[in-house]
From TrEMBL:
Record-linked PROSITE patterns: HTH_LYSR
GO molecular function, one term: DNA-binding transcription factor activity
UniProt record similarity statement: Belongs to the LysR transcriptional regulatory family.
Protein name per the record: HTH lysR-type domain-containing protein
Source superkingdom: Bacteria
Domain HTH lysR-type as annotated: residue spans: 7-64
Alphabetic keyword roster: DNA-binding, Transcription, Transcription regulation
Taxonomic source organism: Aliidiomarina iranensis
Cited PANTHER family: HTH-TYPE TRANSCRIPTIONAL ACTIVATOR TTDR-RELATED, HTH-TYPE TRANSCRIPTIONAL REGULATOR
Length: 303
């Protein structure tokens, strides 16, 4: 008797396996079920369709004309389903986008790193792969960093100041304030006493020169140690009792390291913190998500 309900997909799958393999036993082995389960599914399918699909005579399972007509199309349909499932799974793997972010060890350790857990929670399909680059963009390193961006070796670049290449899109995340820090063992000096102090500063972008000119402080050259990166400057500030000039992005980390700000001597740096990407990729959802998140944490952070 014909059943008006749609045939069971599982029963169709069982029939396809039996017709392709030529026996209930082989179909049962492929589908990891018993032969009796195979037999029940075939019976159910035949009842649903109201036609005999397999002729059972003395354990010889031959396809009826109806079964013979149905089998090839079913095999083709199930092969298409398998390909669709595999393609979907493959696309799902590719949907997890890896963004290669060029960032200095200083910015990663003392600013961005502690907030990456939030990024991972908000964007589980995105993975940030951090590659070390200089924290300050300069004439010496701008060309190679620009090359890495334009050739896809970096998806984004996080630095103080930004490349001038027209093919690169830049966002100013925040201006940077220069702050003067001291170790707890060094008493806070007055402005007049600064001339007697020893200093350490990063020699990039001439921030030291701008700061001394802004406050009209003439410091003898032998009292100033200029270094190439903030990591070295912080170490020297901690262990040599030198006053330390650094961006306020690192103020929290410097405080945790036992340093304190010398009040009243802040100066806005000419070079704020920028994120840079290839202009052609600036509207990609992963890039938009990263830029928006960085702007968000800048807005909510108390520096």
């Amino acid at each position: 008797m014909k059943n008006n309900s749609s045939p069971s997909l599982n029963a169709l799958r069982v029939f396809e396996a039996v017709s392709r393999l030529g026996s209930f036993k082989a179909a049962a082995a492929e589908l990891s079920v018993t032969q009796s389960a195979i037999s029940r599914q075939i019976t159910t399918l035949e009842e649903q369709l109201g036609i005999r699909l397999i002729q059972r005579d003395n354990r010889v399972h031959a396809l009826t004309p109806a079964g013979d007509a149905l089998a090839p199309d079913l095999t083709r349909v199930f092969r298409q389903i398998e390909r669709l499932v595999k393609r979907t799974m493959k696309n799902g793997e590719h949907a997890r986008r890896t963004l290669t972010l060029g960032i200095s060890s200083e910015l990663l350790r003392w600013w961005l790193g502690p907030m990456l857990a939030e990024f991972n929670q908000l964007y589980p399909h995105l993975e940030l792969q951090c590659v070390q680059v200089p924290e300050y963009l300069s004439r010496q390193n701008e060309a190679p960093l620009t090359h890495e961006l334009l050739h896809g070796e970096l998806d984004a670049l996080l630095t103080f100041s930004a490349p001038a290449q027209k093919a690169i899109a830049n966002w100013l995340l925040s201006d940077s304030q220069l702050i003067l820090m001291r170790s707890k063992s060094v008493p806070e000096p007055s402005k007049s006493e600064l001339r007697e102090c020893k200093f350490v500063a990063v020699n990039t972008n001439k921030d030291w020169d701008r700061w001394t000119k802004a406050y009209d402080i003439k410091i003898p050259a032998d009292q100033v140690q200029l270094v190439n990166n903030t990591s070295m400057a912080v170490e020297l500030g901690q262990f040599t009792n030198r006053l330390l000039l650094l961006p306020d992005f690192y103020a929290r980390a410097a405080t945790e390291a036992g340093l304190q700000e010398v009040t009243g001597l802040r100066l806005t740096s000419r070079h704020g913190l920028h994120i840079s990407v290839r202009r052609e990729s600036q509207r990609e959802m992963a890039i938009v998500a990263l830029v928006n998140w960085l702007q968000h944490i800048i807005e909510k952070s108390v520096r």
